[in-house]
Write a sequence for this structure.
């Protein structure tokens, strides 16, 4: 990814000083982030005095994916960033913008396209029967007069994934240009921030976990998932993005875990498969006993990667929203200082967790690669 400066040790303290200063500035923004989450709860109860506040409904609404960005309300009108709705029905491809649902998630707003009717209910899009004017459910909450079309819509998680890819490309293209312009290969600007992180992944994750002779071919993947997960975790903390938290989507973490599983499986050498199917150095009955355990372990590893990242990122958002909900559950302003204080504390922890979870996912992936490529010891 880059050519490392020969005099890195001379400037290492300066660069880490830049990182610490940046982190300090981010901490000051944590208070704004915590207080902003209160707006989420306010949005759900304003103009609904006759309806009891439901914290569970509010929390689930804000941690799940959506078909648009609801930014704020202005004079009774919703200010939103609509995203494309792309559906495939019996009549073929149907496209329109999510703004046509008018920020209605109750299933009352009907959008008619290509002679078909569509409604959005709890962020799921249904196609109504031709003679239906509203969606109906049975006792098990299954739609009785509607069906789900194939949905290829650009949701806010998909949108933010593209944004994160663009941001990462801009960062590393700028870093590469910096090295090309530098006569003595001394990184400055954004390159001075990125280089210590790249060296950290190489020296503290790649080499120790995989080995000096085999780590290089895995470095592109390790660096990609480290920065990709980290930047998306950071985006998930920005209040104006209204919960566009890609790392809190289990489909996203599952995909990353599957990539790690595929690379591990195809990297496995003879020694790796021998330890799974016929453990050396143990009696034959024990070999038979250990074989199914090792096979199950092959699939448990990526599953643990998937759940760990998803659960840790989602948990922080749920806790902050739950703390803010206490203000409206107790219906007292007196509880606000306590809720904001604890929310600020959790937000600071979340800022740290954004990097920790990227590190954990990367180091465990490297560990699995190292186990798959380890040579037999005599």
């Amino acid at each position: 990814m880059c050519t490392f400066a020969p005099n890195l040790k001379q400037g290492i303290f300066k660069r880490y000083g830049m990182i610490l200063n940046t982190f300090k500035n981010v901490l000051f923004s944590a208070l704004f982030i915590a207080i902003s989450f209160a707006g989420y709860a306010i949005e759900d109860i304003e103009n609904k005095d006759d309806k009891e506040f439901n914290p569970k409904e509010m929390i689930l609404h804000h941690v799940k994916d959506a078909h648009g960005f609801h930014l704020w309300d202005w004079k009774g009108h919703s200010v939103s960033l609509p995203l494309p709705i792309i559906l495939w029905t019996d009549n073929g491809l149907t496209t329109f913008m999510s703004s046509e649902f008018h920020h209605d998630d109750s299933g009352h707003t009907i959008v008619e396209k290509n002679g078909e009717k569509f409604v959005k209910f709890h962020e799921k899009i249904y196609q109504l029967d031709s003679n239906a004017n509203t969606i109906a459910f049975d006792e098990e909450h299954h739609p009785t007069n509607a069906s789900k079309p194939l949905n290829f819509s650009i949701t806010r998680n998909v949108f933010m994934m593209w944004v994160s890819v663009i941001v990462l490309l801009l960062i590393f293209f700028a870093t590469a240009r910096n090295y090309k312009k530098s006569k003595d290969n001394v990184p400055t600007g954004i390159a001075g921030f990125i280089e210590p992180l790249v060296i950290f992944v190489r020296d503290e994750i790649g080499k120790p976990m995989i080995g000096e002779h085999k780590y290089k071919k895995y470095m592109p993947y390790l660096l990609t998932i480290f920065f990709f997960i980290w930047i998306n975790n950071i985006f998930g903390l920005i209040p104006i993005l209204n919960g566009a938290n890609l790392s809190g989507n289990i489909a996203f973490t599952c995909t990353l875990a599957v990539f790690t599983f595929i690379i591990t499986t195809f990297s496995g050498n003879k020694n790796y498969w021998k330890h799974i199917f016929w453990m050396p150095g143990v009696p034959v009955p024990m070999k038979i006993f250990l074989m199914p355990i090792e096979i199950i372990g092959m699939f448990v590893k990526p599953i643990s990667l998937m759940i760990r990242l998803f659960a840790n990122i989602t948990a922080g958002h749920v806790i902050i929203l739950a703390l803010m909900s206490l203000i409206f559950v107790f219906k007292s302003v007196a509880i606000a200082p306590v809720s904001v204080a604890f929310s600020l504390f959790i937000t600071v922890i979340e800022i740290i967790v954004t990097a920790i979870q990227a590190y954990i996912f990367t180091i465990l992936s490297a560990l699995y690669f190292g186990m798959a490529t380890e040579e037999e010891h005599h």
